[in-house]
Amino acid sequence: MDLKLIQNDSWLEPYRHAIEGRYNYAIQREKELTGGKQKLSDFASGYLYFGLHKTNDGWIFREWAPNANEIFIVGDFNNWQRDEQYRLRRIQNGVFERVFPDNAFKHGQLYKLVVCWDGSCGERIPAWCRRVVQDENTKIFSAQVWNPEKPYVFANKKFKPNIDPLLIYECHIGMATNQEKVGTYAEFTRDVLPRIKKAGYNCIQIMAIQEHPYYGSFGYHVSSFFAASSRFGTPEELKELIDTAHGMGIAVIMDIVHSHAVKNEVEGLGRFDGTPYQYFHDGGRREHPAWDSLCFDYGKNEVLHFLLSNCKYWLDEFQFDGFRFDGVTSMLYRSHGLGEAFSGYADYYNLNQDGDAICYLTLANKLIHQVKPGAITIAEEMSGMPGLASKFEDGGMGFDYRMAMGIPDLWIKYIKEYTDENWKPGHLFWELTNRRRDEKTISYAESHDQALVGDKTIIFRLIDADMYWHMQKGDATYMVDRGIALHKMIRLLTASTINGGYLNFMGNEFGHPEWIDFPREGNGWSHKYARRQWELVDNENYLYQDLAKFDQAMVNLITSEKDYIGVNLYKYWDNSGDQVIAYGRGDLLFVFNFHPYKSFSDYGMLVLPGEYEMVLNTDSKEFGGFGLSDETIHHFTRPSEEYPDRGWLSLYIPSRSAFVLRKKPAPKKRGRKPKK
Fold first, then answer.
1. Active site includes 642?
2. Residue 546 a catalytic site member
3. Tens digits of per-residue pLDDT, 402-416?
4. pTM for this predicted structure
């Protein structure tokens, strides 16, 4: 076996046996699951079998609960009492089933299961339930019969995501409103999607879709994996959101949580059939030591069926364009990556890895791309395991992208630990571009993680308390001027060096002034900090609008370049003493001066010879800068005797600024017509 993953990286040769073993194990498990006679996509259709379904002449309900002796459906239709008419019958392999007449259920009715096992019973929400609602008064969650008279019909059925490059706007439906409440799918469609379209992003990544009992978990403690959270609206409204986004040319991916599950037993899958190990590991591996949650047993075929079916369900039923898989590092390692340094290749092949979890992720990627060939999959992974974002046939796990999780840490380190005089643009460039050539990444300066209480956004770290008093135009302090300048430079350096995609969290593009703190007991259950203050960016008197304008211009510049990620980066100039760096990408030349007070006149650097015009300037007055450069001037190189293929470019580079020049095409030579 000669897998490309090993061919492309000779350092992996000592671990050939492990890599080939993972590859073969995935093939083996797939054959085991499918019987070798059907596609993986055919196997992963459990959502069409389990749960409550309307038939032509009635209803049918199925549930898997191998340890159960009896299961009853109780609801507001039978006064929540065990009724023989609603008793399920055990058929085979731990599956319970019952066919009901047409009048047994009505749209909107509430129900649960009463699951009984030796010695006890418990109320449960069906594992495959598609709709779960919470009573506003009692706070109790119940399943809801969902069979609307007019199911949503998608208008944009042949949408194809634009990934050249992938520009992701990470968002949360509930906090996307400026009101102190939980926002809705409908409000997001009406109010926020147009903002994202205007900002130039071609993809949204939506958090907290899968139902979760505790709003403040940010959606990461999932209870009902097949239910779109009802606190934001109806399934039809979510479908309309996705359909509308597609009509705008915006892809929609979902933040899917298969790394763990909420511990709740009444609302979630914990002890669903009375055992602790139906869906999860037993013993010491059952609970995640850091997340207060339960860990799936990926070695069970039934668990794989559940999770793979979940992937297909969201693609099929809601037309999502893919997934960002949460907590992949936790899945890959028996230690969940806790306390691990990951300082060398041996750390990826030391028997601390969870082979079943690796297999599941591999099969999930294969399934997703089988169901929707143009789908997008992203791994939230920080250990750097090789092959994560390589093709399965090459020996990888099949993700399209991996999150470049070290980049926000890099920026935080620089802001916290280095004085402005000690910023090294060459080191920054190396860190931003230090990645595996055969794996695409999603680069970002900050995500939702950096905006949460207990952490700080970049803008807050830079400006701090002056954010509250001096963000009005004409009233800026030195701290504000510095923060505004570096905020733009940090984003431009991050976005321009991508090799796959770029991500921004909702509101951070304009320097949202508040952290995120969801309603909880400690803040009086307030929504004050669980929202986005759009009125700030809409106000022409504030610098927030200038930052938003810059972000839009930056995104538009990147998307205007054909095959942006296909063009290699080339570093033309790096002077750590001056804190100046210049690098090229095709016809674009990026020039940065990180020095806090030194501006340079007639600063020379060797670049591709030709004529250059300025197309983006962080110091432009339009973007909250000082406007020290004449952006109308065209710059011409002069020949270099020592480097014939390069030319000397002389530039004025103001302190703490960056700009982008575009090399103009050389004029076509006109030849003389031959004499007759």
1. no
2. no
3. 999 999 999 999 999
4. 0.97
- Widest distance between CA atoms in the chain: 107
User: Does residue 436 sit in helix, strand or coil?
Assistant: coil
Supply the DSSP string of 68-102, one letter for each residue.
-SEEEEEETTTTT---GGGB-EE-STTEEEEEEEG
Task: Choose the catalytic residue: 211, 321, 326, 400.
Answer: 326
Q: 637-655 burial by CB neighbour count: b if 16+ within 10 A, else e?
A: beeeeeeeebbebebbbbb
Do 601 and 590 contact (CB within 8 A), yes or no?
no
Q: How many residues does the chain have?
A: 676
Segment 611-655, tens digit of pLDDT: 999 999 999 999 999 999 999 999 999 999 899 999 999 999 999
- pLDDT band for position 672 (50/70/90)? low
Q: Give residues with Cβ within 8 angstroms of 573, minimum separation 6.
A: 580, 581, 582, 583, 605, 606, 607
The C-alpha atoms of residue 197 and residue 346 are separated, in whole angstroms, by: 45
pLDDT in tens, 348-403: 999 999 999 999 999 999 999 999 999 999 999 999 999 999 999 999 999 999 99
Choosing from 30, 297, 380, 481, which is the catalytic residue? 380
CA separation for the pair 131, 54 (Å, rounded): 14
Q: What is the mean pLDDT of residues 551-564?
A: 96
Tokens (6 digits) for 613: 């015009």
The answer to whether the CB of 3 falls within 8 A of the CB of 23 is yes
Domains of the chain: 46-144 (2.60.40.10), 160-254 (3.30.750.90), 565-663 (2.60.40.1180)
